[in-house]
Amino acid sequence: MRHSPLKLFHVVAGNQDVAQYPGFQRAQQLAADLTPVAAPWITPDPVYQELREFRRQHVFVGPHNESDVERGFAKLDFLPTARPLDAEGVARDSYQLYALCREAKINHLIYMGFAINWCLLTQPGGMIDMSRMGMMCSAFRQAVTAVENKETARGELNKEEGLWRTALNYGFVFDVDPFIDALQGR
Predict the structure, then answer these.
(1) Average pLDDT over the chain, rounded to whole?
(2) For residues 111 and 127, is the Cβ–Cβ distance under 8 A?
(3) Other beta carbons within 10 Å of 26
């Protein structure tokens, strides 16, 4: 992809340190006029607090997993081969990704990464937000994975459902090899 005329944007988790990347600094500047004023949060009541604590204890992530998750997020970084180059945009939220797309006159995003049924769908910069901003959102079949569970993992059923949802709701599902062949004029 980096040797093609296509733009490559990186969308990162909210707590990932990306301040040093010129592409992130550019995204912040471009989105300065887009970021809305945050609405006040609903005030939690005691029942809400109890339900949140019950979920933390018994559903996700559970006390036995919390330290592992914290250690993992503390080391969140790009693989060396995927580290953003200076010309590549880096967005932390949907407004920054939209601003990068607006600047580059892009209206169709093709997603790759983790996970087609979670982050690429629902997190800031994901398909739900970006489609609401008028973007077509597609994915590369061989370049995504999904959050699976014991019933779905063997057959990658959640990945298949996520790809189906992408094709039905947001855009297209592309196979990587023919796409690369087309970029290389084959």
Answers:
(1) 93
(2) yes
(3) 20
